[in-house]
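Q: Two folds, back to back.
A: First:
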Amino acid sequence: HYIRAMFCDSMELEGANWVDDLPDEFEKRRGYSLLPYLPFVLKKVGHMGNPVDEDYGTVFCDTVSEEIKRVGLDLYKTRIELFKERFLDTFNDWCHRNNVKSRMQAYGRGLHPLEASMEIDIPEAETWLSGDLGKSYPDLGLNGRAPRMSNKYVSSGAVLAGKRIISCEEITNTNIVFIASLETIKIAGDQTNISGINHSILHGFNYSPPDAPFPGWVRYGTYFNERNTWWPYFPKWAEYKTRISYLLQNATPRANIAILQPLTDLWLKHGPQRDPFPQKWYPDYQNNLWEAINQNGGGCDYVSEKIIKNSIFRDGRMSYNGRSYDALFLPGIETLDIDTAKSLTEFAKEGGKIIFIGVKPFKSPDFINGNENDAAVKKITEDLMKNKNVVLYPAPEGEVINWYKKMQDELGLKPFVRFVKTNKFLNQSAYLIGGAPMFFITNTSLSEHISVKAEFQADEKLSSWIWNPETGKKYLYPGLNGRNNELQLEIPRAASLMIIFEDNSKGEVYKPISIQGQGKELSGSWSLNLKYINGQESSFVIGSLADFPDSEQAKTFAGEIIYEKRFESDDKEFSCLDLGIVHGVSELIINGETIGSKWYGEHVYDIGSSVKKGENIIRIKITTIIGNYIKSLKDNPVSKTWTRRNEYRPLGISGPVRVI
């Protein structure tokens, strides 16, 4: 009665590729013998089962090379089928016989990266924390993103199977274990939710016995520990994440586009990959297409050929188990099963949009009757191109966001929200909750404030509301020009918005704190009191906020920095205090009154009537990361393992601090 589920981590099967009756099963399922081809389809493998790139000696002509690749594809398909039947189904059956749910990261070699998650009660993905999050990142690839490619596979498979809970191994990391801030953790988590995840599991919460030397045991995880400096503020992140998760688990993600990922071509060209960390991908933008769709206000699910063949086509839409799409993307797909091609013909006849990106399918994956089936697929594709609903669109060259914006406009792909200007740090996912349109919108930059106009696909008669997931409070969010579905969004760095359209127009109006105007800078000297994590204290005065001591003692500090300053206030009323650039969690006290704390984004406080005429005393407590101190523990093996690649990080307030 107390165990919800049994869990299995991702399939890190190294080089496992065999079972005793594999040749017999191969011949039974594929219709020919594998044995003559074994010397050509079994490759040397290295770390995590990744194929070793080396010259095997013999060079074949193109025809023979293509045949060998198709045999290799058939071998991989056979392994997927056997692994499902003999492990996945067995695991599921065992769980259900014992009255618990199955929970699994159902990807990696040996499993279909999308369809396997459809079999699991609680499918799970994974998100990794890295030092490049929230900063400048490349247009293509996985760098700068917390979600792995497996996240979108898993979330797509889950919703296609009607799953409500989609879990995630979240905030795992191997390079910023001790320098991760709550702000960086929030950014990674927001990206996780955008990828379709709604239930976070902190695999990185490490067990450590009390007698283990400080900082204790750490293994592949963020330092979630009561010894961490920011641990007292951890509940703030947890409450935020809990409310987001509750909403998303009770909402239905919206998608107007289905994407057939070119897995067959990827496997033919490069072999199966190790999700969630593929070595190679095809095409080069494959990991970023879903991202660009969301960044342009749309929504999508990945589908497989099996999903397409089992879909219903009617009135211009492709429907499967309650999910429905009016457009199907085929990015870089050269190879298509004949029955899938026939299904595309049926979809096009029913008015559905089919968009081939970069190339049209021209062959089948079949080894038996390959030439005949290749010709059949090519003929079906050529006939499809005569339908006005079928388009061949150029593939992106480099940057994907604006390429997709152009395609979306040219092909009439209506988004759920249209941003006047896209931004690579601006992202969204659209939902329906109780029939009401709901949008989770994020700014995952650590430095950039995003101001953008947005037009939402929602009835103008509905009122727009902003729900604050930190506090649970709801506010009316007035629209522009009398239109409730047209909003001016102000999203500070590392911030997020939950916007919902309801048939209710009565409530408190949202009034964000404004930091516009010059205000009054609190320049000059500050008194500092440093409370070290090891119990020591020191005090000194700095001439300006930019003058934090550049000493070894200060560089390796971890703990609390108390900034104190006295300033005079005349008859002018001040409404807010802006701390400027802050490295850490801030807590503000004015004239002995605690105003509040900020753990991410702009550290702007509503000071209201707290500032009085005459002299005021301002105290700002900054709780730093623990990483600089851990790095200084030169003889500690845990420190040497996890901080050797880290630079010392800035601490405290850089400012400028202004009253406005």
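A: Second:
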Amino acid sequence: MTKGTDSTNRTFKQVLVDVLTPRDARELWSTAYRPVFPVVPQDFSMGGVLPAVLYMMRWGHRRGSGGFVRTFGNPKASRIKDKAGTIDRVALRLAQHQGCLAGFEGNAEQAILADMLLAFCLENKNHGIGRNQPVQRVFPTHYFSSWIDLPETVANLRGIPELIVTVLARQDSGTSVKIGHRAGHFVLGPSFEDNILLRILGAGVSIQGEPNNLRSDIFDEGTAVGIDQLLTIRMAQLLGEAPQKVRGESPEIPNQQPVAKRATDFLYEDLNVFLRAYGGQMPRQSLLPMLESCLSVGLTNVFLSTLSIMIEWERTNLTPEKADQKPWPLFVDCSSSLDTKIRDFSEECIDDLVQRLSRLPICFMCLRILDQRARAERLRGLPQTMPDPSAFINFLGELIHGQSDESRDIQRDIRRTCHKLADTLKDMQETGLVQILENDDIPPVWRLAEAVVIMMGDKLQIAHFRKSLDSCMMIDEPNGIARKRKTTIKGKMAERRSVVLTNTVLDFLVHRHLRKAKKGTGRAVLSLSRFIDILRDHYGFYIDAAPPGFSIPSEILIRNRIHLERRLRDLGLFIGVNDAESMKRLRQRFVASNDKPETQVGQG
């Protein structure tokens, strides 16, 4: 089978332009299909997501450029990498600015200040440790991190902040998220009291004057905050104002819900319950890593549930109802890779996932083709894609085998496109692509979709999906849910991934599910068995059972459960009075906001 390479991609794209039109070819030459999964499947930094979310919640639109490079960089430099801000430049400006931070004027003091910035507030490109490396990320230690325009272009976050804001806003109509819509605890707009995330991370902030003024957020200097928060506040004060709205593209936050509605509900519920219970009580240095873990678990669940739904849609041309949507099954290595046999089974599970993931680009391409043709034909009764895309996706599925005149016309048109493209590729001796396009046993739209994906090549398609999944899982990061290792398979170097719930992830999951979801944030009794059931039913994490289609020996499953029990005990999250399963319960390490006085840390 032909695969596109760097040298042939331009040729293949030109062929598609010649067969279609430049506009139609440009629309198809993509990885994303936002009505199903409203992000761009590429790599992103999870750590940069929350500051962008805070900005969008406060101002109600997408973030544009701000003053970080102008204030802390060297904008007159000839090379782009020399223009970026560095830790040393930030420390120097903070120390020089009168009334900002006192006592850091000397060289040694500035070195200490730079180390604090690198430890608490800023991160270098590629996780570098030097003080002269380009800075690319700001930690969300305080609301004022949203004033710092890192990453410099919000599009580098691939639409993840917009997705999270849309999920939390819960707006059930309209094509864009509106300021002031009230459907929960995350109201967008200039009110820190109506948005729990702004309230928790915005200690000491008030709005003075015109709310739409980019300088209207003021910090009360009498508010006691930690050094990590204070440094972020001081950087923002030197910038002087929040970034402008994005220019050159739509600043609105699209009200596009994912097709994976059940996983989306879990993401909302997890953030909502966790923040209401612990946001005002938990130390900031514990809260922020757990929030990252929450986003990693939730976004991975949405991503993989989308894969599951698309495989079902390919089979039936219908998306499952929310109650019938299932998380993708993943076998978790609870030994943290210490038990190689458990690790191997987890890696086998991920290997199968990566193979199945190759169908997702083809499903997205099929939908883009059908969407393009349906809109070009101006079909009657075309459902809306926002906020819920399910009816629209089902409508497109009907076009594949539908017997209406409009469906037959679209099928006939796509078949002609397949033949025309095949004739062109015959001259290029691309026999593999020609065979796909002329296979009459497959519906024309699936033939065309697979051919275009192959023409784009692995680097422009499946590689981006793998990178997006790695970013969602925060692979090899302390707050993530997966690890990757290099090994040799049949004499060739290969990467293998396994699902490993880090200590931070376990901490978050236990604390989250110790609170009741539908009855506020009151305490819940959580046994170890029930916790394991929740991990499987909500997120697809299999601990003491084999995922469907896999055969894992019972002794491996028993060992895996024992590893989980030991890790929970070591983290102080487990109470086991005796060996009876009913007496093995989980407890919280942090006091929640509505706990009674006698409920202290360690008493569960």
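Q: And?
A: The beta strands are 122-124, 135-138, 205-207, 217-219, 330-331, 482-489, 492-499, 541-542, 574-576, 584-586.
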